[in-house]
Amino acid sequence: MNFKNMSIKKNLIIGFGTTILVSLIIIVTSLVMMSSQKAAYQDIIDHYVKANQLVSECRIDYNIAARGLRDAVLSGEVSNLDTATSKMNQLESVITELNNNFPMDDKTILNTFINTMQEWGTEAAKIVQVARTDRESAVPMITESCSPKLAAAATAGDSLASQLQAGQEEIIKQQNTTSTIGIFAIIAVMVVATVVVMIMAVKIIRSIAEPSNQVRGALVGFICGFVGAGGGMMMLLVLTSVLGYELKTAVGTSVFIMSFTAFTGAVSHMAIGGLPDLSALLLCILATLAGAQSSALFANKASPAVLNRITGVVLTVLGAAMLVIRFFL
User: Fold this and answer.
1) Which CATH number fits domain 1-209: 1.20.120.1730, 3.40.50.720, 3.50.50.60, 2.60.40.2140?
2) From residue 38, how far is each of 166, 181, 326 by CA, in Å?
3) In terms of pTM, does the model score above 0.85?
């Protein structure tokens, strides 16, 4: 049968072209979605988490400073005044860093938080000066002016932390929505592509009176692309039992198909940062090359009956090994 003169040539090209195109679309879309999610979560880590840490540092610093100031006024320990002054100076640098690294456009709550802390800092500095010369006069200043401003700063800090948390949740929500839309779009593309390929397959089957090697090859391609067979043991059973391939041809076809699936899977895995262990990779390559050559020499000299028995033994041993690893190791 002259395949070039058959009317199915165009349908085969369209069918396989659709399969390849859909696979590329899915891979590219998945990589873009993963890259977008990675960038969004990295933004949360670099900015929102950092801002939350700075807010916590501010609150810790002014609380330590306020406690040192209160203890100094009540006990007369001058060293506590030095501790309070040191924390107040440190607080200024943290406030500046927070203002420079704040990730949100709306800085109303941030400005309120900064203003309340600066007002408390100004009042605390006055109390420090008074406490060094007249400790008794500093006591009412603590209760009447410093404590209320400290409470206002604490309230503003709570509001700022809530705003940052809401910003993080909004980014995560947007990413979840984008991912959901992407998944549904991929499913829709796969459904449309499946319909197109099935139509092509029906036309191919109806246009041929007797099966040919080309048609059987086309059916193998359709099965691999849309059933998810990657060239493993199940594919070997389909080739030998359903499509009637000889074992030698089936094994070669199965391994050939699996090479493309393994390659695209490896490229996708490495694209998202999953680099392999180079020593293990090199060992697998060398073992594969040696095993392929020795197996090919043996298979070319062995009879189909011997190959069938050996294949059955190998599958049995592999199955038993998987059971042992799964349940006993």
Assistant:
1) 1.20.120.1730
2) 19, 17, 33
3) no
